[in-house]
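Review form for a predicted model. The reviewer records the input and the model, then writes brief findings.
Reviewer: anonymous (R2)
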Amino acid sequence: MSAYTSLNFLFLLTFFIGSLRVSAQLQDPTYVGHVCTNRISRNSIYFSNLQTLLTSLSSNNAYFSLGSHSLTKGQNSDMVFGLYLCKGDLSPESCRECVIFAAKDTRSRCPGGKEFLIQYDECMLGYSDRNIFMDTVTTTTIITWNTQKVTADQSDRFNDAVLSLMKKSAEEAANSTSKKFAVKKSDFSSSQSLYASVQCIPDLTSEDCVMCLQQSIKELYFNKVGGRFLVPSCNSRYEVYPFYKETIEGTVLPPPVSAPPLPLVSTPSFPPGKGKNSTVIIIAIVVPVAISVLICVAVFSFHASKRAKKTYDTPGANDEEDDITTAGSLQFDFKVIEAATDKFSMCNKLGQGGFGQVYKGTLPNGVQVAVKRLSKTSGQGEKEFKNEVVVVAKLQHRNLVKLLGFCLEREEKILVYEFVSNKSLDYFLFDSRMQSQLDWTTRYKIIGGIARGILYLHQDSRLTIIHRDLKAGNILLDADMNPKVADFGMARIFEIDQTEAHTRRVVGTYGYMSPEYAMYGQFSMKSDVYSFGVLVLEIISGRKNSSLYQMDASFGNLVTYTWRLWSDGSPLDLVDSSFRDSYQRNEIIRCIHIALLCVQEDTENRPTMSAIVQMLTTSSIALAVPQPPGFFFRSNHEQAGPSMDKSSLCSIDAASITILAPR
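Model under review:
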């Protein structure tokens, strides 16, 4: 090593050791994650209001002692809703520092974003053009996991222990009068403890706080030793190490700064001592590690300096490296997938769709998964396929099926999803023996969940995803009959417009496809809205869209039948007979009304998914008067009007098909 390199090394070492002395005072908040959606112009009134709001939130010292503050700026469509929430055990000064940092960080992480949510260990800050902070079922979420997994032999007991701890924490937080914050600790074994923390924004009622926390707890899978779930109105977290301040015999101890212990392994415990002893221990650990790291850096720099070839950073290079790293962590070995599915045994086959066959699998750690084996090569290269998988895997919402990873080997392209226990919606909806398990309350919950899932894809995710094949078979139901939209993002992963090499095709399911998509290959978010409308009518009636045509061609399809009932003033004749009288009359009529607005022929007359969610959750919103829908079968005595009769364009079955699209 040259004298120059040695001098640099000593300088870096001196600088690092010196910085240790002030690190406790100048430490930035610990970043967890963020969501940024719907870019807007910086010249807009909304953007100006946003800057004013961020300044006000971070400069009003009166609220930092409360740990939370909500604010609005502007009026009507230019109004901005903003809020920050500091961790319940944070001091007012630390809260202030975190919020000021978050307000600055917001401007760099989401420049021009219309809706934003960012989470640190110490605080959360968010803003939107709608009041997402009082919506306990909001679509904006941040989920993170500890990478360490619970050992298989401890899994069930660990799951029960954490779930019990989280529920007790939620009850305590909801019943608290001020910060709606609670932390709890329980002993999992003689040498291992569990820690939980939950918090709601103070403005929530106790009932809404419990509801929000219960929903967040459902989203946490306790096969990992730690995880957290955040929505704008509440958050929850659990770990196997203390991540919040504990009070022991009157002494407040800060959370440990070192890495958490290995899962469910005995770890030494230290009695509470003076701050001086803690500092000595930290320095004794950190300094040797730092010296080792710097030595490695110096050696690497020495060898790198001998290379003749220079490398240069390019814009976006870091993003690409992050995606490559993420793709690597998502990739499964083919032998593991083969073993998990018992070599794709017919006994494990769950079904078959337009994109390939689906099998149930059990990974070596005992986790059950659904394995989708794509039927044909997509025409993409390996890099492009990986990139698309990474994009879709980052989309996480309670009403979307989670993509866990992929397998790419030779001609095999395989997607690995979370396993959803109750099969698909059509399994219950169109089977006379199973229909009774879906009462109206359950179906109404399913309709709302599907709407929120599609809204996330359209508006609240990092990029706009149009499903293009929304149907009952692509809605999976979990153990609590909560809906999860499946096969979203297949347009990206499978290249839905290119199912065969060099041939452009439109893929979908007749009966669910909008007129402009079926006839001209034109798709948009309003195409999904049309499909959603058909799906709602099927959920209400318990009938397939094509079933009436198969019974009697004069009935047309379900959309036509519904329109005739609506025009005759008897919409309740559509209702599934299995309900008997157990349903809310006004609720069902409103859902039929919304569905008819969704299936309007003109895309401009169809509502957005955002408007649909508001219509479903707020009964006071007035609904437009529907016009005759698209793909309306007119009988001889009905006037066709200026629109052509498109009955010949509809398929009488519900199979996924492909048709040529015009160039």
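Findings: The CA atoms of residues 420 and 478 lie 5 Å apart.
Further findings: Residues 275-304 form the longest helix (30 residues).
Recommendation: see findings above.
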